[in-house]
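Thread: Modeling a multi-component assembly for a lab meeting

Hi all, long-time lurker, first post. My supervisor asked me to bring a structural picture of a complex we are working on to next week's group meeting, and I have zero experience with this. I have the sequence lines for every component (356 residues in total). Could someone generate the structure of the whole assembly? Inputs are pasted exactly as I received them:
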Amino acid sequence: MRILTIIGARPQFIKASVVSRAIKQTGGIEEIMLHTGQHFDANMSDIFFNQLGIPKPDIQLDIHGGSHGEMTGRMLAEIEQALLEHKPDRVLVYGDTNSTLAGALAAAKLHIPVAHVEAGLRSFNMRMPEEVNRILTDQISDLLFCPTTTAVKNLETEGFGHKPVKVMQVGDVMQDAALLFAEKAVAPAGGDFPEKFILATLHRAENTDNPERLANIVRALNQVHQDEAPVVLPLHPRTRKLISHQGLKLNVKLIEPVGYFEMVWLLDHCQLVLTDSGGVQKEAFFFGKPCVTMRDQTEWVELVDAGANELVGADQQKIVEAAARNVGRSVEDADQLYGGGEASQRIVDELVMAGR
Ligand code: UD1
Ligand code: UDP
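Re: Modeling a multi-component assembly
Sure thing. I ran the full set together rather than chain by chain. Output:
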């Protein structure tokens, strides 16, 4: 069976690394890797291929920037050509980026079945580009690999139980990655990190593209850095651009985006995670750290229910207070919320079965 995997953004490299590894170990599947080029800086792309042993993409597109419609449209056209040339039996997509939607749509229009890893997640906020991408991708997939119980329930609510598709709770491939690569943790080069620090990440469009939200978050991070503990922030290129565009000043310890091994080190050594990332919310939990999430909704509601994650939006005061409340606290993964590291193998077993 030939599977064509479509990736393009940083979290997809990390997710695909563990599934790709399980594909190789299991045998019986030829995987062709297509990189859309959505993320392209060395520290947003190449570094993950090198560190995580992901094979060099068989097809490398160079599509990035522009509006959402333009980026997705250009990807759709070029992915279609690649599918026509390589004739896969199935397409595999991850998460909720523009690369995800373009890949799934190109395949569906050619009647190639689509498997979606991270199916069923919902924020119920249609203004988020990710929500649009994931809802549409789920609609045109026939193997829906859900990471959580909530994700399965979301699909049931949307009527997937009556469709000729397979919805499965397999666990979260990001937990597989965290478990597999934890021992590779390495301090970021040129570091000199304080004994106690807070790890922050910030890049989601709903924060960075809204001047008021962005200014509030910048003020909150500056205050937390001043009052609680040094804030270490590997700065996403999107955020770098928008902060400079708005003339804001982040007075925290800014570093360039880091590789996964460095990120794992930061997660392991920090006192608290402050983020708007999807993946980093869970990774805080995997490394026993409390998380304060600077968003109005989360797809990972079980972390909030478990008391591991506090949702505070982009309100300066709420961010500062939640940081003070949570810093240094430890968090336990008592309930195996994310499958315990078996997700990739479950996914590959299902892919093999579907190909018979
Ligand atoms: C994308 C995803 C988001 C995901 C994030 C992971 C969509 C709609 N959004 O957001 O869901 O959380 O990836 O990090 O697909 N840039 C660089 N160098 C790079 C990558 C990006 O300079 O290597 C710049 C781009 O030129 C652009 C900006 O950063 O100006 C945003 O990149 P883009 O891929 O559009 O969206 P992300 O914010 O990265
Ligand atoms: N990450 C990384 N280096 C960084 C920031 C994040 O390796 O400088 C990893 C992080 O550990 C997680 C993934 O990138 O595995 C999350 O990606 P991101 O926050 O960009 O996207 P999201 O999960 O919000 O879609």
